[in-house]
Amino acid sequence: MAALLLRLRLRLRLLPLLLLLVVSLDAAPRGADAWGKQGHIMVCKIAEKYLSEKAAAAVQELLPESAGGELSTVCPWADEVRFHYRWSRPLHYANTPGVCNFSFSRDCHNSRGQQGMCVVGAINNYTDQLYSYGDSKKSSYNLTESLMFLAHFVGDVHQPLHVGYEEDEGGNTIVVRWYRRKTNLHHVWDNSIIETAMKDFYNRSMDTMVEALKMNLTDGWSDDISHWENCANKRATCANHYAIESIHLACNYAYKDVEQNITLGDDYFFSRYPVVEKRLAQAGIRLASILNRIFGDDKQDANAIPLQAQ
Ligand code: ADE
Ligand code: ZN
Ligand code: ZN
């Protein structure tokens, strides 16, 4: 009985400690693996608008029942399975040895040195699998999963810190304050910048933010779209190029003027937010473009003109 009471008292004493641990883990998130959920949904909402008819039909056929016919609902899925499919964890990013350039042969591998096991290899691999869609002999791949992985990783490769430095795990080990809140640099780029923009500019509404991005695509960025889409590689993708862009943006914007324990506020937010906006839009356009190349023969026109003018 005395032993039981002692154990109970010990547990009660440990409880506040445990609570503190949970709260501090919450305040300083680590090891998140993507644009946050919202970033991925936005990328895919943009992509949906730029799909050719053929691509939209193929996507509809491949989507799981639970998606309710919307690609955007499955775009965060790869993050949800990264503990279950442990092999998929390194496919969300690529790291460089502390340099501002990306080399596939040097940087695209997992911790066991297996080549191609990074975000660029993953995009090319799942694209290749999806090309077997419609083959007369049934594909041995689960093309529903291939589509959900591809849609997610095209988003990830556009998050600048998903092609970051190995030493700090793409900013995950750089502790910062986002205004008053303790977090890390990677999380700022996955989530905080988007959340602050949504709160300050878009009435906390993701749909309003997506509409603003779509509007920008039809006026401000309309001349850029064809450059973003341009990819000379016939059957592979241009993911290598997107990774090179990301590490450049990581060096010039994400890491720039940041050190351990720094507080980031308005100056950082207002100078980096335009980069985040543009990367979300680019990712959406390029995802649509990849899917149009895979599924549609009407790619050129479909890429240039949005199907449903909104
Ligand atoms: N873990 C290690 N490096 C990473 C990166 N660049 N992005 C996300 N998670 C990581
Ligand atoms: Zn991810
Ligand atoms: Zn991330």
TrEMBL record:
Ribonucleoprotein is among the record's keywords: no
GO biological process: DNA catabolic process
Entry's Gene Ontology molecular function annotations: metal ion binding; nucleic acid binding; RNA endonuclease activity; single-stranded DNA endodeoxyribonuclease activity
Protein name: Aspergillus nuclease S1
Signal peptide: 1-27
Keywords, alphabetical: Disulfide bond, Glycoprotein, Hydrolase, Metal-binding, Signal
Family listed: Belongs to the nuclease type I family.
UniProt superkingdom: Eukaryota
Documented EC number(s): 3.1.30.1
Pfam families recorded: S1-P1_nuclease
Enzyme class: hydrolase
Reaction(s) the record says it catalyses: Endonucleolytic cleavage to 5'-phosphomononucleotide and 5'-phosphooligonucleotide end-products
